[in-house]
Write a structure and sequence with these properties.
The chain has about 200 residues and is an all-alpha fold. It has a domain at about 30-50 and about 75-160. Helices cover about 80% and strands about 0% of the residues. It is built from seven helices and no strands. It starts with a helix and ends with a helix. Keywords: Membrane, Transmembrane, Transmembrane helix. This is Ferric oxidoreductase domain-containing protein.
């Protein structure tokens, strides 16, 4: 059975390429990978806010919310990497423009916002993974400030997603509005709960 597996895989790839399915997939990812990244990162923001809720959630529930928060963050970063790769592979931007903010030849500001958001999300993910390194009161404050920069990155990603590519379809604008509304409501509830605790 094992010798047949590589042959079957090669046959599958050949049929997929010959049928045009790869072109369809790349076309979908050209527009869909960025949306999937934004949706995943929006869900990450929502679960991060939920994980801090002490009024409704018990410790076990908050731990579960943190696990979902981390899982959706990893998925969001994966979709973000795929989005960047597809945009470079399709020639919509160059590797230098993706790596160095505000250097794109056609849309420097909007593509630059996306690059800044990507770097900030990456920094938030890395500092989240090594949270234990931020010990003490000063370290905890630094970690919290770095982690809170995800809100700014998320806002930059929203503007980048709506304005940098083709005109957004109505369903995409509605999805973006739903993401903004959900995060705004959850953030308002968290701020109100924080005032009550203090």
């Amino acid at each position: 059975m094992r010798p047949a597996l590589p042959a079957a895989l090669l046959l599958f790839i050949a049929v997929t390429v010959h049928s045009g399915a790869m072109d369809t997939l790349v076309h979908f990812l050209d527009y869909g990978a960025g949306v999937l990244a934004l949706v995943s990162l929006s869900v990450t923001v929502l679960w991060g806010l939920a994980a801090t809720d002490r009024m409704v959630l018990h410790t076990g529930h908050r731990l579960l919310a943190q696990a979902v928060h981390r899982g959706t963050a990893v998925a969001g970063l994966g979709f973000l990497g795929l989005h960047i790769w597809v945009k470079i592979a399709e020639g919509h931007t160059g590797a230098l423009s993706a790596a160095v903010p505000f250097t794109d030849g056609t849309r420097p500001f909007l593509v630059g916002l996306g690059s800044l958001a990507a770097y900030t999300f990456l920094a938030v993910a890395v500092t989240g993974a090594v949270r234990g390194a931020f010990t003490g009161i000063a370290g905890s404050r630094w970690w919290r400030a770095l982690h809170m920069s995800a809100y700014a990155a998320w806002a930059l990603a929203l503007v980048h997603g709506l304005k940098s590519g083709r005109p957004a379809a109505g369903w995409a604008v509605a999805g973006y509005a739903l993401c903004v509304g959900a995060v705004a409501v959850r953030l308002a509830l968290r701020m109100r709960g924080g005032r009550r605790e203090s």
